[in-house]
Write a structure and sequence with these properties.
heterodimer; A: mainly alpha; MetI-like fold; about 75% helix; B: MetI-like fold; 2 strands; about 70% helix; Sugar ABC transporter permease (chain A); MetI-like_sf (chain A); transport (chain A); transmembrane helix (chain A)
């Protein structure tokens, strides 16, 4: 998607330019290599830590190569029932919230893509205004609490059901579909619902896949809604599980060195939990990355 | 950055015009009344009902709920509060030294992140643009987008582990013969940690839109510049940068708009009472006052103040940009 047209260098260049031509690519390659290394380093060090022994980490020996290699920490984390309960919660929340979000976003985007619809401008305005002004944390918290959504998946799914950016991407896609097909279907007596379900959606598989990815990655990664609205450990998603490990470690270290061993065990476990949380996303990342990029571009160009 | 980017005037008005023009072609030139519109398109409108309920309940009700900033609120009572108290809570926070402290911290972190995180994606995009080897370029891009897909909790975990006493930074310090530093507990280190991790998270993904803008630059312009004897550096300066200027300005306006809402979730995860002097920002203070201490009205008053500043900032930036360079969001 983001490939840039290469310019032809067929014309003879000046001497100075040729000189630059030799030096600059090297400098550029070095700089970009640094970008890659800096980006990858934290991943590498966490993976190394997850396989390392406690003592080796504590004495500061672990950077990107595991020291005192062992799988004990993995066994420890994976034998924790709470971890699996929370992991399952993450899956359930992600699927539920994504389904709700997709239904609402698709319906609204389809309506907004109809340029002849009376009141369309207002409908768009209602959505876009919320990009610049939101109610804020406290009124949202008060609302969700008073609706009785606490400790249920709806506290996560409903308040985040439509992401306006995703909405505009979908709207742009629907607008780009040829109108003739829909008109023909309408002439054949298909209702609006029928047109959406049988004509438009089958033509929109690419954008639907992109949106499902956008939403599911967001919900998979989210922690704050669950942190706010879930009171019981068996309802936490894995991100909150991880957050509690991190917070626990932070308190242990700030309390003093007497808790060192506790904090150190946590460093191991933290690393493993991070690896296990990120793993699903890293596994699909190479295959889905281009969808994200194309989605952003569609939103940027047409939005 | 996750917002529509357009350098054109508002979408709604001309589109409405087009819509009218199109509707007018087959039918006589006459606006449809609401009744006619409903009779014709009721199925479409019915599809909008649930989304509208969503917007009203979860977006506009909370906006209205900000009224508790001026009313006494009791947990369990009406979400709009029970009784008017006027500007009591506003006065309270204006006289609260902690508020001014967190206000200052918010501005500092906002300015620092803008200064660092706004230019970096542009530099990366320019470097990538000069990379002639396709596959290498694709690889660098794929890697640089990676942090964008991480949960902020994992990012926080990375930060805590790398800055830990046994972490990478202290390993380097040790190698240089320096005593270890407990970075995460020292207020004077918080800003550096925050801004550098922010840069790590955003630089790759932020370069996408610039790379897209770069592909739209007419290659004839480069050809002409070369014929005029412009070096590669001068081509970058006189052709490339002006070519991506609208994108730069649009993203700058959007960045300014989100300036006050500095990385709330990340700060909440990595700060602690020891680093409050530099790390505590408006949003984290609102969280602690409201959700933790149950002073809902007081926290709502501060939150509303923050939201209004954000709105004013984005409108101002937009106006200035429209006047000065003719590019604006709407």
């Amino acid at each position: 998607m983001v490939t840039v047209r290469t310019r032809s260098w067929s014309r003879p260049r000046s001497i100075a330019d040729a000189e630059r031509g030799r030096v600059f690519p090297v400098v550029n390659a070095v700089l970009l290599s640094i970008v890659v290394l800096v980006t990858v380093y934290p991943f590498a060090t966490i993976v190394a830590r997850s396989f390392s022994g406690e003592g080796e980490i504590r004495s500061g020996q672990v950077s990107v190569i595991p020291r005192g290699f062992n799988l004990t920490t993995y066994k420890l984390v994976m034998s924790d029932a709470t971890f699996w309960v929370n992991y399952r919660n993450t899956v359930v929340y992600t699927v539920t919230a994504t389904v709700v979000a997709m239904v609402l976003t698709t319906c609204y985007a389809y309506v907004l893509s109809k340029k002849n619809l009376k009141g369309r401008g207002a409908l768009i305005g209602i959505a876009v205004f919320t990009m610049f002004f939101t109610g804020g944390l406290i009124p949202n918290y008060v609302l969700v609490t008073s609706l009785g959504l606490k400790n249920s998946v709806w506290a996560i799914a409903l308040p985040n059901a439509i992401n306006v950016f995703n909405l505009l991407v979908m709207k742009a896609f629907f607008e780009s579909l040829p109108g003739d097909l829909e008109e023909a279907a309408a002439v054949d007596g298909l209702s609006t619902y029928g047109i959406l379900l049988r004509i438009v959606l089958p033509l929109s598989k690419a954008v639907i896949a992109t949106m499902v990815l956008f939403y599911s990655v967001t919900f998979w990664n989210s922690w704050f809604s669950a942190f706010l609205y879930m009171d019981r450990v068996d309802l936490f998603p894995v991100t909150v599980y991880l957050r509690n490990l991190i917070a626990g470690a932070a308190t242990a270290t700030s309390v003093g060195s007497s808790k060192d061993s506790l904090a150190q065990t946590a460093a191991n476990i933290q690393a493993v939990t991070m690896v296990l949380t990120v793993l699903p996303i890293m596994l699909v990342y190479p295959f889905i990355q281009r969808y994200f990029v194309s989605g952003v571009m569609l939103g940027a160009v047409k939005g | 950055m996750s917002a529509p980017v357009t350098s054109d005037p508002p979408a709604a008005a001309p589109e409405a015009g087009q819509a009218l023009a199109r509707a007018a072609r087959p039918a006589p030139v006459r606006r449809r009344t609401w009744r006619q519109a409903f009779r014709r398109d009721w199925q479409l409108y019915s599809l909008a009902v649930l989304p509208l309920v969503f917007f009203v309940v979860f977006r506009y009700l909370p906006m209205a709920g900000n009224v508790i900033a001026f009313r006494r609120f009791q947990p369990g009572g009406s979400i709009f509060g029970d009784q008017w108290v006027g500007l009591r809570y506003v006065r309270l926070f204006l006289h609260d030294p902690t508020f001014w402290k967190v206000f200052g911290n918010t501005l500092t972190l906002g300015v620092l992140s803008l200064l660092v995180c706004f230019p970096l994606p542009i530099v990366l995009a320019l470097l990538l643009n000069e990379m002639r080897r396709r596959r290498l370029k694709r690889f660098v891009q794929s890697v640089s987008y990676l942090p964008h897909f991480l949960s902020i909790v994992v990012v926080a975990g990375f930060i805590l582990q790398i800055t830990a006493v046994d972490g990478t930074v202290n390993q380097v310090l040790k190698g240089l013969g320096h005593a270890p530093i407990t970075f995460i507990q020292q207020p004077e280190w918080f800003r550096a940690i925050y801004v550098s991790s922010e840069a790590w998270q955003t630089v790759g993904w932020g370069s996408i839109l610039y790379l897209a803008a770069l592909t739209t630059i007419d290659s004839d312009l480069y050809e002409a510049a070369r014929i005029d004897g412009a070096s590669r550096w001068r081509q970058t300066w006189h052709v490339t940068l002006p070519g991506i200027r609208p994108t730069m300005i649009t993203l700058l306006i959007l960045n300014i708009g989100t300036f006050m809402a500095v990385g709330f979730e990340k700060i909440l995860l990595i700060y602690n009472p020891l680093t409050y002097p530099t790390a505590d920002v408006i949003s984290t203070y609102v969280y602690r006052m409201g959700v933790v201490s149950n002073s809902f009205s007081y926290a709502a008053a501060i939150g509303l103040f923050e939201a209004i500043i954000g709105l004013v900032l984005v409108f101002t930036a937009n106006q200035i940009s429209r006047r000065a360079v003719g590019t604006s969001l709407w």
